[in-house]
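OP here, attaching both records as promised.
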Amino acid sequence: MTDINLHALGEEYQQLRHVTAGKGSDEQQEKKYLVLNTIVEQLGLPGTPAADILSTLGKPDELVPLLQHDASAMMMPGPVMGGSSTAARPPYYFVYYNKGKHDYFYFKIDSVKETLRPFLPQRYRLATRWSLLYSLDQHGISLTTLYRLVKNNKGPCLLAIKDADDQVFGAFLNESLKPGTHYYGTGECFLWRNTTNGLKAYAWTGMNEYMILSEHEFIAIGGGDGKFGLWINGDLDKGYSTSCPTFNNEPLAGQPEFNCIELEIWGFRI
């Protein structure tokens, strides 16, 4: 068993389970996700039986699919995972939860970071710690909240989007998003999208320096010639993607305009 007090975390989580987007204060929503994120991290620590965690938490809906999904990849010890005794650290996951459809979407961070690693700045290629800074589902539809939650992140971040057509794409940003009226960011930024053949990244071309433009009404990544590589509105529910000079990217979504089903921002460090 780890040094983390799973019983205390479980009790704290149970008290916050009623808190969802639109219900409860921003502080409660943030606290709930921090607790849940800590619990999920324990699932990746060798020697922490999955059955013990489920028992402690009363099998919350948010965790059961994590344990049931792809047992061989997670390699989690304990009867819930078929009794595997393998102690290897399982992959982390982006977890998307659509309450209306009761459907989870998983994007394996281990797969992503291995694919992205050659494109990352040299100093971040050994990054092993991933932390969720903002989630549309957990923190609500609010660009103001997004800016507030990511402002203390001192390193780069990864923007991940899932649209209504189940396309997954986003951007690597060398610094956190912040409201303003001018472009910022460096040539370390790039756009990416998940394809049937793996993840594809679009690096900076050097044609301009229109990396990040994040105002109170929208977020835009990449620009030039009146186009944006990725643009998301202030309600965080609609956007569009087209080729832009900054990254010479293909459209990231299946269609130029898309409906945003989930959006998450992850920070990471060595």
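Record two, same layout:
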Amino acid sequence: MLSLFALWCVLAGASATIDVEESFCLRVTDFAVKSMNVDNRDRDYGNNSKVPEEFVSLAELEDALLTNLFKGYQKWVRPVLHANDTITVRFGLKISQLVDVDEKNQLMTTNVWLWQEWTDYKLRWNPDDYGGIMSIRVPSESIWLPDIVLYENADGRFEGSLMTKAIVKWNGTIMWTPPASYKSSCTMDVTFFPFDRQNCSMKFGSWTYDGNMVDLVLVDHYVDRKDFFDNGEWEILNATGTKGSRRDGLYSYPFVTYSFILKRLPLFYTLFLIIPCLGLSFLTVLVFYLPSDEGEKLSLSTSVLVSLTVFLLVIEEIIPSSSKVIPLIGEYLLFIMIFVTFSIIVTVFVINVHHRSSATYHPMAPWVKSLFLQRLPRLLCMRGHTDRLRYPDMELRSPELKRRRGGAGGGMVGVKEDEWVTMLEKATYSVRYISRHIRKEHFIREVVQDWKFVAQVLDRIFLWTFLSVSVLGTILIFTPALKMYLSTP
């Protein structure tokens, strides 16, 4: 009837002159066309209630799909047809950030994405019945999950992931990629600190299901690092995954282990720890370049020793308290502390030698004179410290005076000559006394200068000795670490 009325409107439209009648006819014609389309579609699909109408929105279609899918769905039941069926979970890991590596507490903090995919046969549908919908997003709390957790968790949050929505495809395939923040245990090897490498692992597996119920399959043997945010202290050299299993009685529990090879970037510790320690070690060498009569020799050595103690306290706050290994920087600081201690002992000995003299009852042995005043200075390219003056011994009496006194005759002339001889002898005695006194003072001064020169020779010997030991010790301690660090790609 609507079709006939529409035909009448078309025939009458040619002669119609009233706009109201024309508008009414157009609306009636449009309604008739839509009615015919609905009738034709009903005949084609047999009036199936699941077939959506053209005016039904996508939201209404998804609402109907979710209602039908989860009608009678139980998320606590493993979605298998038979009891001996195994659900295969494809597992992968994507790291977004290496937040921190705590050497003191032996922890590694990471932000990752867990890629999980499995099939739930109860969540299937025909896309043609729901307007071509191929996939939907559903809350992960509403579906069955394989309860995969991190075994080496250190903060008690074993799941560690955000319950994001899961993607459910029309064939029952579920893909769930939740972000997670983990604190995992990591045994630290600080032998070559700060040129060390660490091997930290993350082991994932199902907490309640054994291998007969849930099996894990690696998606990729490498951790996805496409969206990785670089860390300022550590560099990830390699990150690989391997599948393993552990047996507990009759059951086998599969797990996936991801190993992270971490390389420390040592620039910070080199600038603020190693270089100052090197400077302190060479300051210790310079102690022997100071004059022995300066009191700052011991003060400088003591200051260096106190500074090294402060550095040891700083390192103790960084590295873990372990008796298995001694870190490289700890070995070096211990070496320098022993080095400084010996330098203090040697400095005290040199100062003691410097202040020796005959007045302190320290006569110089001939071999000391020969070795430290003649041979060693030439080997060390040192000049002699003083010019030695020789004073001839004066006889008690002049032979001429004796001859004249013995050959003089009597009389007044002889008496006068005797008086002159006596006066000359007294004058000679006085000169001899003064000469002896001057020679004694010169000898004492010469002994003092000899001991001071011996102290200078000792300072020069210990300067080169300690410099050689410092350079050689530094090379021997740091060479293995640098070789290992530079050999790493």
